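In the design runs reported in the main text, the only information available to the sequence generator was the tokenized backbone. The following block is the verbatim input for one such run; it is reproduced so that readers can re-run the procedure and compare outputs position by position.
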């Protein structure tokens, strides 16, 4: 269909008071010959209704609205078949530039040009429709409290669930507990674990199919189309296939295992030094606490906190639950007689939230002694007793106690694929340089291959090019955007929950299970509509690869942070569309520029860049291109507008899906078009990254070398391109970033000599 483009310029929100609207309309009609340009008093409510009526009566199929921020609109504000581009004239121009100023007017006119060009280049987005039916059932891996709760929550919402547990029964650590810490006000008394009720509910639910003594020996496919093979655990004998089925999304609730105690504590060397989990198993089994050495009832116990955690060289993180567990176990001991005594040695006691009330209740017991100090020595006496010596105590004295048993608070580590190994894999990948032959890649390439198939530690056994499990952070917790998307992993449709995600108590695990269940449901529903899940929830676009021109360089497959692209034997990328998050990182990576979305292409942005009118050198009006990430940088820019912070009038801003989607050709196009410099602003990267696509802003930095080479070829200074990391609450830095760039780079190096060429 032929394009019929209409432009609506809003005169409300102070826009007409600040800008010459008639002149803007002339830009649209005279320079671009658009079919229709009209002013409207508002672009919300009645104004929006009027725009929609005009779209219909004028038969427009592409529309530009210059008014409020695109972020103020809802998805169904316009008919699906109409392509609408919105210019944030209020936020990006009127709120942050002086009114009725030549430079302000030039900025507004440039945005009209840029967005007319953008809408000209855009094509209607058609959601991805799989040829196969999208499956909406959900697989839960792990049958502990988190897995069981997730299965129940998902089934209650009407979805079929397969619950897989590797041991011979459901329950996990919950089933191994004698009692639970209090979960209800007034948070004073221990509670029944509730395991029997939970098991009965699972058994009675017809939507849950449970497999025990089984594991996921293979998972291939993508959200809505995951093909799962279950095998029997085998118990040392060969493992057999148990079942094969398809699911739509997966919750990984594989829980935790105890950390090893610190080396200076004699666990494994003295019989009567045990772990907190050993004590729990003992009382669950025999109803009382005894000394392993002789079976004599324990009357005095020393509990040593952080026995396996919070030491720099040894699980440096806090496991969050051990202190509460010790308080609970001290109460078990007190149930063994009025003369039973518990000595709790700690550096800090951590009892978050309402659990502080439980801590106070335990402190009230006169036979439970809390000592802040460091355990220096544990020695065994002849009679089976142990002597515990603590130093650096609060009173400054050494303290010695004689006890029957020492219980070490072991922390939690996730039952994920081994974190260290995954880290090694990532590191090895970094040393595998693109463009090098396999021989040049040598050992590093071999290591990548080996690590990808880390036999024996796999949990999910994903058939992904990028490895069999969820990529994890340093300690093995699956990688996620911890602020905005806590249940996400780097594999779309697979949601870690419970202690595999972070250390937490039972109550937290149940809440986590509910969160992951909702995410898994959201995934199958949105996937069935051909929409992206987080963070571009509802986006119906997806990347298209013009493979006839693909050189099999593998940059897209290696740089996609979500393992979306498999490869054929030649290295041609094979898109698994329902895994895609629509970040555009593959588009930024591709040197051949053959990856595009219907509404976001290399050509589209390059055309927007070129649409800006760049003044001649003698006008002394530089132009700075700012490519800003839609996730944090653009909202920050709007916050700057809301605070009426004024910024440099020579900047022209283009929002990008992620800095990782920036193709280096945009920078060279900008310099060739006469811009004096380019600023890229994205999310924070590194270990505590905030990039919504995990690696996008880091990749933009990494690819900077490429850009620098191109600038050198053009005899331009590297300094003309800058990359900044910005958090949304750092909106106040934006004027300074722009101003410093103008003063320190452009004024120092002068105007771009390519101007006017
Ligand atoms: S890089 Fe982003 S857009 Fe490209 S395939 Fe991966 S998830 Fe999709
Ligand atoms: S980056 Fe482009 S050229 Fe390279 S493999 Fe991917 S699609 Fe092909």
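Verbatim output:
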């Amino acid at each position: 269909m032929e394009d019929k483009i209409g432009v609506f310029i809003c005169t409300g929100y102070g826009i007409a008071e600040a800008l010459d609207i008639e002149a803007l309309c002339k830009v649209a009609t005279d320079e671009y010959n658009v079919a229709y340009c009209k002013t409207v008093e508002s672009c919300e409510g009645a104004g929006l209704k009027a725009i929609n009526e005009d779209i219909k009566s004028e038969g427009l199929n592409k529309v530009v609205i210059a008014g409020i921020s695109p972020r103020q609109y809802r998805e169904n504000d316009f008919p699906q078949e109409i392509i609408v581009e919105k210019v944030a004239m209020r936020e990006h121009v009127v709120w942050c530039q002086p009114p009725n100023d030549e430079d302000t007017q030039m900025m507004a006119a440039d945005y009209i040009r840029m967005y007319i060009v953008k809408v000209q280049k855009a094509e209607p987005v058609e959601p991805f429709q799989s040829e196969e039916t999208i499956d909406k059932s959900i697989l839960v891996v792990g049958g502990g409290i988190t897995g069981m709760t997730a299965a129940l929550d998902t089934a209650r919402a009407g979805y079929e669930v397969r619950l897989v547990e590797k041991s011979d029964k459901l329950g996990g650590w919950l089933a191994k507990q004698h009692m639970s810490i209090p979960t209800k006000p007034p948070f004073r008394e221990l509670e029944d674990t509730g395991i029997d009720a939970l098991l009965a509910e699972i058994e009675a639910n017809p939507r849950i199919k449970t497999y025990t003594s089984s594991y996921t020996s293979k998972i291939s496919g993508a959200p809505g189309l995951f093909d799962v093979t279950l095998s029997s655990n085998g118990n040392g004998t060969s493992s057999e296939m148990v079942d094969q089925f398809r699911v739509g999304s997966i919750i990984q609730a594989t829980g935790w295992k105890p950390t090893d105690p610190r080396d200076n504590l004699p666990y494994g060397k003295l019989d009567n030094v045990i772990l907190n989990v050993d004590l729990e198993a003992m009382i669950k089994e025999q109803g009382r606490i005894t000394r392993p050495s002789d079976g004599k009832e324990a009357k005095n116990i020393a509990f040593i906190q952080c026995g396996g955690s919070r030491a720099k060289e040894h699980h440096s993180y806090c496991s969050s639950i051990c202190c509460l567990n010790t308080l609970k176990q001290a109460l078990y001991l007190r149930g063994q007689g009025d003369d039973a005594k518990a000595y709790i040695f700690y550096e800090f006691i951590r009892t978050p939230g309402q659990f502080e009330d439980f801590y106070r209740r335990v402190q009230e017991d006169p036979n439970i002694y809390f000592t802040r100090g460091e355990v220096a020595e544990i020695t065994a006496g002849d009679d089976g007793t142990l002597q515990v010596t603590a130093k650096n105590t609060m009173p400054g004295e050494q303290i010695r106690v004689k006890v029957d048993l020492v219980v070490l608070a072991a922390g939690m580590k996730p039952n994920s694929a081994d974190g260290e190994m995954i880290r090694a894999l990532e590191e090895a990948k970094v040393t595998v340089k693109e463009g090098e032959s396999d021989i040049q890649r040598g050992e590093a390439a071999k290591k990548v291959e080996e690590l990808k198939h880390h036999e024996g530690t796999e949990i999910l056994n994903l058939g992904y090019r990028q490895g069999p499990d969820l990529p994890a952070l340093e300690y093995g917790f699956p990688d996620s955007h911890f602020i905005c998307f806590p249940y996400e992993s780097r594999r779309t449709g697979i949601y870690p929950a419970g202690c595999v995600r972070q250390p937490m108590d039972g109550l937290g695990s149940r809440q986590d299970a509910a969160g992951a269940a909702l995410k898994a449901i959201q995934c199958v529903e949105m996937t069935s509509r051909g929409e992206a899940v987080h963070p571009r929830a509802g986006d119906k676009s997806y990347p298209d690869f013009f493979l006839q021109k693909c050189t099999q360089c593998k940059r897209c497959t290696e740089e996609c942070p979500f393992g979306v692209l498999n490869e054929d034997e030649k290295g041609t990328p094979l898109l698994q569309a329902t895994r895609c998050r629509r970040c555009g990182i593959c588009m930024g990576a591709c040197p051949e520029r053959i990856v595009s979305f219907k509404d976001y292409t290399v050509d589209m942005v390059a055309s927007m860049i070129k649409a800006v009118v760049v003044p001649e050198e003698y006008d002394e009006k530089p132009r700075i291109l700012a490519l800003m990430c839609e996730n944090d940088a653009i909202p920050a820019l709007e916050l700057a507008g809301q605070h009426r912070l004024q910024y440099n009038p020579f900047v022209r801003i283009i929002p990008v899906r992620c800095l990782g989607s920036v193709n280096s050709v945009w920078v060279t196009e900008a310099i060739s078009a006469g811009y004096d410099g380019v600023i890229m602003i994205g999310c924070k990267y590194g270990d505590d990254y905030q990039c919504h696509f995990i690696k996008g802003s880091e990749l933009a930095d990494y690819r900077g070398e490429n850009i620098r080479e191109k600038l050198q070829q053009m005899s331009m200074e590297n300094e003309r391109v800058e990359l900044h990391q910005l958090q949304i609450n750092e909106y106040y830095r934006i004027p300074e970033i722009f101003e410093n760039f103008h003063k320190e780079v452009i004024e120092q190096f002068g105007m771009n000599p390519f101007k006017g060429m």
